[in-house]
Amino acid sequence: MDETAVGREQARALGEALRRAGIELNWLWLQSFRLGGELSEFEIEAYLHRALYLPPYQRDLLAQAANNLIDQLPPLRAPYSCELREPRSGA
User: Which pTM value belongs to this model?
Assistant: First the structure.
């Protein structure tokens, strides 16, 4: 896979990860900025829509920012029935 194809696939996969985790673009931008990124929200959005090519360093910085945010989310799990029942009062 050539570098352009790698960049396009990385953008697609990043967008999918953000969507599945419910992470908004402004949070990705802020986290990437904290890590030393210099891209604007507009540039990140263009990249996610595969309208802007980014070099590997910038793509990996966005991946790191996204993974940091994903790692902070509570784990997804299915509830048990007892967790869904309202507690009895006065019993």
Answer: 0.81
